Amino acid sequence: MSADxxxxxxxxxxVEYCKKGELAYQVCTDxxxxxxxxxxxxxxxxxANLEWRVSKGLGTVYxxxxxHAGKDVPPFNVALIDIDExxxxxSRVEGIDPMAVKIGMRxxxxxxxxxxxxxxxxxxxxxxGAK
Amino acid sequence: xxxxxxGSVAVVGAAESDLGLVAPxxxxxxLMAQATMRALDDAGLKLSDVDGLFxxxxxxxxxxxxxxxxxxxxxxxxxxxxxxxxxxxSHVTHAQAAIEAGLCExxxxxxxxTQRSVSRAAASPREYNHYExxxxxxxxxxxxxxxxxxxMHQYGTTVEQLAEVAVSARKWALLNPVAWEKEPLTIEQVRxxxxxxYPFTVRDCCLVVDGGGAIVVTSAARAKxxxxxxxxxxxxxxxxxxxxxSSMPDLTVSGxxxxxxxxxxxxxxxxxxxxxxxxxxxxxxxxxxxxxxLGFCKKGEGGKFFxxxxxxxxxSNIPVNTSGGGLSYCHPGMYGLLVMIEAVRQVRGECDKRQxxxxxxxxxxxxxxxxxxxxxxxxxxxxxx
Lengths: 131, 385
Description:
The complex is a heterodimer. Chain A has two domains: 10-54, no CATH class; 58-126, CATH 2.40.50. In chain A, 33% of the residues are buried. The radius of gyration of chain A is 16 Å and the shape is globular. Chain A has one helix at residues 10-19, and strands spanning 24-28, 33-35, 50-54, 58-67, 76-83, 87-91, 106-112, 121-126. The model of chain A has no long low-confidence stretch (mean pLDDT 95). Chain A contains one helix and eight strands. Chain B is an alpha/beta fold. Chain B has a single domain (9-119, 207-384), classed as Thiolase/Chalcone synthase (Peroxisomal Thiolase, Chain A, domain 1, 3-Layer(aba) Sandwich). In chain B, a hairpin with a 4-residue loop joins β10 (361-368) and β11. In chain B, α1 (28-43) crosses α2 (63-71) and α10 crosses α11 (285-293). Chain B is globular. The two termini of chain B are 21 Å apart. The mean pLDDT of chain B is 97. Chains A and B meet through α1, β4, β5 and β6 of A and α6 and β5 of B. β4 of chain A pairs antiparallel with β5 of chain B, so a sheet runs across the interface.
């Protein structure tokens, strides 16, 4: 099925999943490659055969940094997460000292609901032992 | 891949604009124009000789048009390719192709920025990207910090080794009269500086200054008739690997591996032939990645490469960033053009106290975006032809 950008956009669909508390990604059904960020056309194959799937929401920290944005903002984490279904995304690991976020740490998704100015987006919390 | 010929073109003029903090209301195009005339003078050429124009800038949307209008010239060939700080190395490749094809003969490549005067945020506004922006990384710094953290995890690279890169750059800068930084720097000072995006402190990050530069590229035949000794383009290589850091396949391997292989193949030289490295040091991790990916040491050993001042003046390794680099000399936003200017001056033997002996071959490597574009140019003197 070809993407119809008159009806729905990749980001629009992704955000709809976020609103339901779900982390969604796409798979190109021509070659079964997981795709993130969502697109209208699959990378490499150029195919429009893109199927939406919902991730189990588990992943592993691939890299991590602690951002010091200024005196008025407490330092916060920014991380790259390798999601178990086989793709990587940027996110934030919450509920833990940002300096305690380590590469290799297991994490689980939760959706930040956003507000009037910010679309919802996924963040992660520690999930030690999650397989 | 390359239909271009080794040594078919040469850099015949190279100059910086005024650097540092320029007078209020100076425009980026003022700086480009100033550098262009200085570079033409360096070559012994006139504005009316210019028939090719290559410009990239973040504050000027239509660079070639802006500079052509300012100087009231009508170039036969122009190119505004913008892929971040490495844009100008790719312009060298494109200029060589255009000159070989007879589309132009005297190409000016120019850049200017007033990012210190107007602020980095104003000079280089970023696009909103829902897959990264909500997490508020300080870009590009946090992206490079993620690469550094991964390199540390995978290869045991230390924050002290990162600091060594900044300390070596500072030692060179103290030998460069136009460098922004004038005081010595220690590893301890780097580590105790304000943290910006861990593991980086502000001293792991490049300077934010105003400035620009220009180089003049022409055919080898024309180059021989001009004022200075030509600095030949022996080989170049360009790569785009990703846009955002979340799409970079392996944060410890940059596209410099590809661009370097292309450039060395075309140049027909080996790493051991290269006498100095001019590497885009936006952050202390980048020269570490580039000495590995360009084949000057094994993957994972880049940190050790810089330890104990081995790339600093009098060091036992190849000299790196003799200008003082983006970390201590100047960094007006997209710094790649100035990376090449230093390599050209070293091959000419114009570097006075920081001159590398017998510098017949120099490698200039540019980086753009968040390790996204990598472009390499190998320069050689007449003796290397």
